[in-house]
């Protein structure tokens, strides 16, 4: 995983759930890819993509050692994903309340922030 941002959906308000955005955008995968999600995407399915989700422990069901090891491995990858998101949010305009709603500029602002993140990775700026 190289921390590059490959896909960006249209922006939504902060209180819209990620799974709902995924359903509204009708996200489709045209290649055989692995999609790493958290339990917030429970019920997400795809014919071409392999959805990787952590195992959920219940009161009546304890995880076996293999499931715990898988969850640990998956959480290490998800931390890197969250760090990538945080790298985009270093731009003040992205993380604070956006007041320039004219002409849907929030999409453009997010696109520029992600492009700057990818440029930083490509050129190894600090």
What topology emerges from the helices and strands here?
Blueprint: H1 18-25, E1 34-36, E2 50-52, H2 65-88, H3 92-95, H4 105-123
Parallel strand pairs: 1-2
Quickly describe the structure.
With about 130 residues, the chain is mostly helical.
How would you describe this structure to a colleague?
This protein is mainly α. The protein has one domain (18-123). It is built from four helices and two strands. Strands 1-2 form a two-stranded parallel ribbon. The longest helix has 24 residues, at 65-88.
Mean pLDDT: 82
- Shape descriptor reads globular
Number of domains: 1
What low-confidence regions span 5 or more consecutive residues with pLDDT below 50? none
Strand content: under 5%
Helicity range of the residues?
40-55%
**Strand-and-helix sequence, N→C?**
HEEHHH
Walk across the major sheet and give the strand order.
Answer: 1-2
